[in-house]
User: What shape does this take?
Amino acid sequence: MSKKVLILKSSITGLLAVFLFTFFISKNKSETYEVLTKLNSNCPPGFKKNANNECIAQNLYMQYNSPNGLGVGGLQTGLPEIRDGFSPQQIDLGRYLFFDPILSGDGSMSCASCHNPEKGFSDGQKTSLGNNHQKLKRAAPSLWNVAYLKKLFWDGRATSLEEQMQEPLFSKIEMNNTPDNLLNKLNSIKEYQQMFAEAFPDRAINSEIKLNEIYKSIAAFQSSLISLNSKYDRYAHGYHDALNDNEIEGMNVFRSFVARCAECHTPPLFTNQQFAVIGTPEPNGIQFDPGAQITFKDSTLRGAFKVPSLRNIEKTAPYMHSGNFATLRETVEFYTQGRGHAVPKNENLIIHWHIWEPNLTAYELDRLVDFLKTLTDETFTPKIPNTLPSGLKPSV
Ligand code: HEC
Ligand code: HEC
Assistant: This one.
């Protein structure tokens, strides 16, 4: 082989090597330049993703088609319609927003400050503490299974999650923010800009974060808080060993026509979503709360409150709209102390016909409490984000 040919050959292999090398480098480089996804693309447990990237609720109650709300009924009854169909990215973005104190005017308080996952998405207070520790009028309800509710707040004054959240966000005595300040703050954070672009891919490129996108994401997150796999549920689906004898006795009292609990706290949601005057007392020194009378401008609803779901009730003491009862035992005892016994003398309330004088024994009250504790299921508790795009500490 001549010298010339040798040089030619080796330079060709050299060129080839250089070419392959740059090819790999550039390929690797282009991978690192790909848009990093910041949000989870999987649906949370309890949901299944469809072809449109929507999370659709899945649960064993879907096999029963008897409608909810038919009185005491059987245990194998369907649930009311759920608000689902959000994308996994919207749900995940909502999780960051829910825990981020950047949502409040002075950056001190998040939704989770009053709806703490460790306290059944309530806050352990009789009535919540707002901006500057001001005492609010009512207790923070749990948010478990809130996607099934048609009316929100104790007095039903909001009809969607989006409408509801504007009250705490912009109330002076709660998160004390303004729509303009909220938008300015979020739009100044690059990571949130990227996350909103990912959660709302159909909007124009480089568009600003909008209020309805914030509301939708938080609503999506709240709608993912599903608790339907308690000991009680396993029993209801036919696994009879899930409840012990005491708990079954309690369930039978709960469903009996003497106690009538299930008439209002109707399974499987443990609320019929109606408003009822049951005559619960306010704590000492607190003014009478007219409740749903104001919302519906109906004097027969004076002192009426939304029948709350009893799911995870073990976790959300103290109880009732004003947090007047410290324990579940005290709460169930209220129902057997006589119709209207706690109504102030100057009030003439129209107590609901299912509130009567069941004369339950101390033994039966204990069993009711045993039963209520079988409604605990926190297996789908979401993870609190470790860090937030705002750089603030997630506050609970
Ligand atoms: C300062 C405490 C506090 C903060 C902060 C707060 N909430 Fe609440 N939340 C409450 C109280 C108290 C109620 C009940 C008020 C009433 O019924 O009049 C409530 C009611 C609700 C309800 C209605 C539940 C039902 O069963 O009717 C939802 C949903 C809710 N809050 C979500 C949120 C979201 C989302 C945020 C953040 C944007 C938030 N809350 C911030 C205290 C708070
Ligand atoms: C007429 C409908 C009705 C019946 C019957 C009824 N409840 Fe209630 N329940 C309500 C309403 C309304 C509230 C909220 C009242 C308030 O906040 O002042 C409530 C609240 C509760 C709470 C507190 C929930 C919370 O989140 O703080 C528990 C526990 C409870 N009920 C258990 C029972 C049991 C046990 C029985 C049967 C002995 C029963 N209820 C019968 C309507 C009813």
Observations:
- Residues 235 and 347 are 42 Å apart (CA to CA).
- Residues 259-261, 263-265, 276, 278, 280, 305, 307-308, 310, 313, 316, 319-321, 328, 331-332, 335, 352, 354-355, 368 surround heme C (ligand 2) (CB under 6 Å).
